[in-house]
Amino acid sequence: MWRSNNGLIPKNLDLLLVQPSLDFTKDLNALMARKVEEDIIISNCPPPGIGYLLSITRQNNIKAKFIDMVTSKVHAEELYHYINISKPTIVGFGALTIQIKHAGTLAQEIKKRFPDTLVCAGGMHPTAMPKETLEEFPALDFVVSGEGELVLLKIFEHLDKKLPLSTIPGVATRDKPEPGGQQINDLDNLPFPAWDEMDLNLFHGIFPHRTKLELPMWTSRGCPFPCTFCARPLGRDRVNRSVESVISEIERNIEEFGCESIAFIDETFIVNKKWSSELFRTMIKRGLNKKINWSCETHVNITSPELFELMKESGCYYVFFGLENADDSILRDSGKMSKTATVKNAVKWAKDAGVVVAGSFIIGLPGETDETVMHSIKLAQELGLYSVTFPIAVPFPGTYLRQQALNGEHGLRLLTDDWNDYDKQHPGVMESDTMSIGRRLELQKIAYELNPKNKIEDYIRKLSRRQRAEAVVCL
After folding, report:
1. Binning pLDDT at 50, 70 and 90, where does residue 30 land?
2. Among the listed residues 70, 17, 25, the one whose alpha carbon sits nearest the alpha carbon of residue 43
3. Cβ(253)–Cβ(215) under 8 Å?
C-alpha cells in the first residue's frame, strides 16, 4: 500500500516493507514482455510472504505498511519522502537475487539520510547468502533468513527489551553471520495474508486466469525434490497445512475480496496425493469449484489420469510443469527425477482432462549440447503446450548448480557475480567448455522462434545451407 486509505502517509511506523526497484518503468516493461496473449498480463501477483508478515504484525499491534515500488510506480525519491514522514523503526526489503543490488543501493541512501533507521533484507538471496549479503551491502544492519513470520516478532521483542538481534534464530548480523533458524511446523497457526493492506488492482495475476481477481495461496512449504538448479529456500522437508485451513482461506478470499481465481504457488503442488485428493473433493463438496477456477505448478512424476480428472472437476484450468530437458541423462543428473516418457504422459493426461498445460525447458544444464537443446525444442512442439519458456540455466546462490560451476565441474564456469544479470532470460551468467554463453543465447532465440506457433520445418527452410545442415543433424 502506497498511502493509507485516507490518502495520507502514516506516521511513526514500526515497519516499512519494500519490494525494491531503481527503475520501475524498466521492471514494468519486463512484466509486459512476459505476456502470452495481448489481453493477459502474467507474473504479477501480490506477494504472499509480505501478506503473511502484514497479517502477523497487525495481529501483534505492530504498525506496518508495504510499498511495491514497481506496481505502485514509486521513484526512489518518493520512497525517501515516505520514510521521512512515516519514520519507520525498520525498513525491510524483500529481495530475489536480481533485486538485491537495488535493495543495497536504496539501503545505502536510507542510512545516509536516516542513520537511526534500521535497514534489513529478507527473501531468496539473503536466505541463500546471509554472510555475503552483509559483506557486500554494508548499509544493511541485518538480514532475515528463511521464514520471517516468527522471526519478525522476535526482532521487535528484542528491540523493545534492548537485547541484541544476533541471538535470534533466523537473523544474521555482522556479529553472527550464520543465522541458523528453523522451519515453521504448524502453518495452520499463521493468520491468512492481509490482502486488505495492498491495492489488489495493481496485481493482474501470475497465471492466465481471465477473471476479475486472482490471489496466490500456499498450501505447504518446502519441496522434496533435489533439483540442482533450485535453492529450495524453505528446505526439503515439506510441511502441509490442513485441508480445512486451505478451504477456509479460499472461502475468505471469495467472501472478503471477491476472488474468482486461486494460484496455488507451492514449490511443488499435489506432492501428497492423498491430501490433495481430500482437498479437491472438499472443494467440490463445498461448491467452491462453481465459484472459482484455480491453477498450480507441479512435477510430472506425481500425476495420474484420475488425479487430473479430479483436479479439473474441482476447478483446475491450468497447470505449469518444469519439464527442463528432453534428455533422460540430463534430467537424471540435474536431480529432476523424471524421464521424457513421464513428461509425455503427464502432459497428455492433463490435456485429456481438459486442463491447459504450460511448461519450461532450461537451456544449458550440465551435459547440454546443441543436439539435446534441439531435442527439447522438438519435444516442446510435439507436446503442443499453451505456452513454453526456454530460460538459460542460472547458477543461483544456494543451488548445487552454483557449486558445480564454482568447482568447474562439467566444464562449467561463472562469468559474473553481478546480481543484476542473474535473470533466466538474459544476458546469461554461466557457460561451459562445450557451450558458450553466446551459443546458449542463440539456441534460446531459435527455441522462441520455433515455439509455440512456428513449425520447426518452417524455421529450417529459412536458414542458410550451412545452418540448415547443422540444424537437421541436431534434429
Report:
1. confident
2. 70
3. yes
Cα dihedral 24, 29, 35, 38 in deg (nearest 10): 110
Pairing of strands 293-298, 90-94: unpaired
Q: 3-state DSSP call for residue 300?
A: helix
CB distance 215 to 46 below 8 Å: yes
Angle (nearest 5°) at CA 381 between 377 and 384: 140
DSSP 8-state symbol, 446: H
The single residue listed with the C-alpha cell 474468482 is 260
> What is the rounded (10 degree) CA torsion for 79, 82, 86, 88?
10
CA 371 to chain centre: 30
Residue range 77-129, pLDDT digits in tens: 999 999 999 999 999 999 999 999 999 999 999 999 999 999 999 999 999 99
Nearest to 86 by CA among 2, 190, 211: 2
CATH superfamily to which 15-172 belongs: Cobalamin-binding domain (3.40.50.280)
CB within 8 A of 5, min separation 6: which ones? none
Q: 164: burial class by Cβ within 10 Å (0-12, 13-18, 19+)?
A: exposed
Map out the domains of the chain as residue ranges: 15-172, 205-319, 362-475
CB 322 within 8 A of CB 299: yes
**Right CATH for 205-319 from 3.40.1360.10, 3.40.50.450, 3.40.309.10, 3.30.750.210:** 3.30.750.210
> Tens of pLDDT along 232-264?
777 777 889 999 999 999 999 999 999 999 999
- The one-letter code for the residue type at 134 is L
Residues 6 or more apart whose Cβ sits within 8 Å of residue 337: 225, 226, 301, 331
Residue 195 has a CB neighbour count (10 Å cut-off) of 22
27-41, 213-227, 327-341, 425-439: which has the minimum mean pLDDT? 27-41
Residues 53, 149: contact at Cβ < 8 Å?
A: yes
443: Cα within 13 Å, side-chain hemisphere: 30
Average per-residue pLDDT for the chain: 90
Distance of CA 286 to the CA centre of its chain: 30
- DSSP-derived 3-state class of residue 18: strand
Residues in the chain: 475
Q: What are phi and psi of 414, to 5 degrees?
A: -80, 140
In the chain, the amino acid numbered 347 is V
